[in-house]
Amino acid sequence: MKSIIVVGIGPGSIEDMTAAVRETLRTADIVIGYKYYFQFISYFISSHTKCIDTGMKKERERAEKAFEMAEQGHQVVVISSGDAGIYGMASLIYEMKYQRGSDIDIIVHPGISAFQKAASLLGAPISHDFCVLSLSDLMTPWALIERRIKAAAEADFVTAVYNPRSNERYWQLDRLREIFLNEGHHPDTPVGYVRQAGRDGETVKITTLAALDTKDIDMLTVIIIGNSQTTAPQCIDRTNKRVMITPRGYYANDNHHDESLGGTGAAIMTQSFRTILSEMKNPDIPTDKRWLMLHAIHTTADFDMEDILHIDDEAPERIFKNITKGKLKTIVTDVTMVVSGIRKAALSRLGIEAKCYLHDPRVAEMSEKYGITRTQAGIRLGVEEHPDALFVFGNAPTALLELCELMRHGKAHPVGVIAAPVGFVHVKESKYAVKSFSDVPKIIVEGRKGGSNIAATLCNAIMTLDDAEQIKPGRDF
To answer: What is the pTM of this model?
Structure first.
């Protein structure tokens, strides 16, 4: 039988070469391949085997020679590094078979790919859906490569990258990183890279998307970028090395999952947050602002929040520090629905009381006496008893305007204000008014939008700000 056997010789070491490939090399009449790879197979080639080697970019020449030799009746083996079907010779051999109209049989023996070897050295980074990209634009237009990069980033694939950088191809890897960050990948996304995987001089490094030093990368390096769930913990053994782990999901529904994530509802919320992060047009904002933005979008399913949620610089952090220092003891709201939405477990854990004075017996009397709304009266009472509270508004613009007047006259000194009244009358004006108090930390849903639900969720976000880095919204459910 006239045949060409295309084999993947693995990344380089004898141990990573399959038994089928070893046996095929031992019995070959002729072995054809890129000359650099013969050093990895010399142990298996007999003295009677003819070796035909060529330099780089001579793939068509090697394939043509293979058909010529096979048609003369020789047992021909064509070698590729890694797996012959992944950026290897297998496709070219098949294409040439049909282009030539040849009756030569084609057999392919798989090998361990370089990205598989790299993954094993990095830990377990490709345990879930992944894709493999090459940044070489020798035969693929860069515009198409960039479309594929964007698709991989948007879909949150674990992504292996071949041919990442060379002397001539020096900017493409930086562009890939830029795309991943623009598509919502967190700057701390784990990235591992392995140079000379399975060969002498092998080096293994783990960093992050933001910290990746592209100048440390060359053509002999394979990069693996984690997805939104990939972590990079230290090994709990004598090696103490870092590894990359992408969860498959085995612990999602049993008793071994991270208790800090809570139950099923919390897990769904975590997944929702990751989805939101991947779809935000501007995720690269300070952590405290991003944390509140995730909560706001999750509650409303409204990505307009990226444009209308105004957060004073360091406002969430300043309010949270007052909580941790024990200075913030009370949250005063305009309506009871806001209190209902604030997590009771978080209030208890932090020693905070959330109050609404709307149904206080004194409110009706004050409202009638001064000709003001009940929510205004409730805020007046709240300021009298807790002038330094966190004031939260999810419904009544008149109540927010009342607080502004009390602040203007030095009667209220809020530790912060969350302003999310909703509606059409005095709503925008109330938000303009509170925005003018530059010394007070503020979170404002600008325009007509707002509501008790978002006001409460912004409180919850502030109370769990220490979970923001890890994006674990499940605490206090």
So the answer is: 0.60
